[in-house]
Sequence to fold (890 residues):
Amino acid sequence: MQHIRRLIGIMVSLSLALGFVTASPAQAQKLQAEAVASYKIDAQLKPESKEVIGKETISYRNVSTDTLNEVWLHLYLKAFSSPDTIWMQESGGAHRNNSASNWGDITVNKLTSNGVDLLATSVQTDTLLRLELPQPLEPQATLELEVEWVSKLPRVFARTGYGGRDDNDDSFFMVGQWYPKMAVYQNGHWNSEPWHANAEFFHDFGDYEVEISAPSEYVIAGAGLPVGQSTNPDGTLRHSFRSTNVTDYAFAASPYFLTKTATTKHGTEVVLYYFPEHAFAVDEYMRAGVGSLESYSDWFGVYPHQRLSIIDVPDGAEGAGGMEYPTLVTGGYTQMGVVGMAAYVTAHEIAHQWWPMQTATNEAREPWLDEGLTEYSGMRFMMEAGINIGSIGLNMPAINLDRSQYAVDHSHPISLPAWEYEGNSYASIVYGKSALAFQTLENIVGSEQFLRAMATYLERYRFKHPTRADFQATLEEMIDQDISWFFEDLVDGSGLIDYSVQELDGGNAAVVERNGSVRAPVEIRVTLADGSIILEQWDGRDEQLELSYSAPISKVEVDPDFKLVAELDVANNSASSSVMPSVSLGARIAFWIQTFIQFVGLFG
Amino acid sequence: MWNRALLLGLRNSKYVKFVLPLYLASLLIGLIQIWPLAWLLDRELSKSPFLDNLILSDLSGFANFALGSDNPALMGTVFSIWALISICLPLVFGVIYNFLSGGMLSASNGMHSFWAGCWRYFWSFNALGVMLVLAALIIIGLATSLTMMLPTFSALILVVALVLLQLLNLVGEYARAIAVIRQRLNPFVLFGAALAFCARHLPGVLVFGAFGLLLNIALAAFYWYSSQALSQGILLIILQQLCLFAWIWIKFLRLLWALFYVQNGEVSRNRHVEAIQPEASLGSVI
Fold:
């Protein structure tokens, strides 16, 4: 009996242990990226001069089959060094209504490999530095670069720099795109595209050991895991962080940060760094932070890190908000009276922890696989969590933000490189149209099948550099329907989803037309005069569908469940032989006007 | 005195003919206001699958309508102009209420005919209305500023502001009643007298105010539940108009309660004055 009890005890313990391992970050840590570009960084934050003085050792492994004679580094802060850079020219010197004021820059003072100076022969163009190697780098060989540099931070601009809680405060630092960083060698050439205004980044995976020294009153919110701190001889504090299987590193610093911590059901620690004046937004941040992390893990695959930091940005540094780095995101605080925005921005940035932080696509060349998938994921979370955006009782679901955005400009394909979009079209298409396109696809093929396909895509290409071809092949394989309309018409096409119903004449026939060039499958609900309802399926391949029944038709509705969320013109999607709807609508509008005037006008 | 006012108010509220002009004015404004939308209704709105959620207090309905149009910019402009006009309509209705409430009160009191009462108090009630609106705007402004300064107490500030607005509403009703009973027209005097009366008879005034509010809430709840059963069609339209009529009737009842409460208060005050008058006379004689 005792043996049996012991056996049961062991089995229970094993089950619990197994359950723990399954749900804990330990499993996540088993997901290992192939380390290509790893960094050991020792940085000093100098708040008075707004500089970061750094030393780093870059270990770059040549994982290609080519012998490399040169390597390329990104010097992103060069983008803000003069009005003549490509970034500044393309952006017109402004980003999200913030104009560049104090210029930023990065100066490399020393760059060696095995003691050989590479700086003297290097060539800098815009934000790129080309280095000729003294010795060819053979496949699978590792190159070590020793770099010393100074980053001069701009007043917060395009998500990096310094700012504060008001215009007179400059104690907050968002330190991103701040160190010399390896470019990606892929398909036989270096990705030597300079930093474009619309574009973001493309990096290899690696491990980071980062030491950040700062005045002792500063709280350092660093990506990855904090692993300790010590005091430097000059009295500053040295904060140590480790971040593995990631493509980048960033940190924020402020003397005023407060923190709030929670743990997801999968065991990930979520830490919010916020400012006292934004305490009212903490619950919203945490709801979105924990909720979205759990949802994305359930939908797509586990979050592979132990910690996620959310940075609330102060009022005087709004330009630092809404940005993503591996294991660290910056949020957008709740404007007074407008709820849901902090959740929306946070959920969006956290979705980036999947796209592209795990599937490191080229964000500049194929932004829809980054921002598009992310916007879709964030919107999906907001819809499922029931978090609307608005105030004083008037609010809208997140999907309407995307519909509004898409309505502004809907005349481009989704699949263009970032730099080919002009004006508002980048936001309209890459964010809005992409998100609506993915949601439309999900609605048509079913959530279960679509999410399984997305999870497979992540599983196959986690910690790799997938392209559109990989994504498309996975979806086409995993979805048992013809989805060529999605890629050919919606992703690569400039046309619209647009269906309409011709006026009914009270007879037994009706005509449904496809006015847009996107041949999306659609449902049609027909109500006959005898009250019976018939649901038709149309593949949308032809330009017209004629319907005929044995009884008179009283109503025809195209896409009655509004699955085609990417269709903008839905006003012509139904036709009725009854005049009652317009009378009813008129009477109902009159009712609400009367209610309003009586409620307000009968005062006193 | 309070019981008598309650009963007299209820008894006189059966004269719904005094409510009818105000209701018809409301209906007229409602119908006129949908004319600018008529061509849009005919053109495309009535075909939209978002008919149902347009009417809900949810921006998605409006957004979908605008997005669903062939010409979202034109649609947006039409809606914006329409919304702007709609915001001004309560002022128009407020003026009509100022006109008709004089008639409702004087006719109920038997002082003047309905229309004579309307004209007699029109300018006085308009001036009173302006004072009330200004006072309400001050309360709203203060509440908004306090909410911005103390966001953690926003719920409490909102509740306090709503209570103050309700009290201001009550003061306005008593000011109108006092105008008719005492035949006074100066809005400042009316406002001051109403404040004094409400302070003197605070429990009774608050109970009448609470009764009125409860009737409003009951009506709103009745509409909410009954409209669920009548999702569309002519029955819903009839229900809506009946509820709007009932809303005005409740206002009429509140005014009547104020009228008879003030009237009874005057009577008891006069009795009290009469009761002490002989002593005074005696004193003067002595």
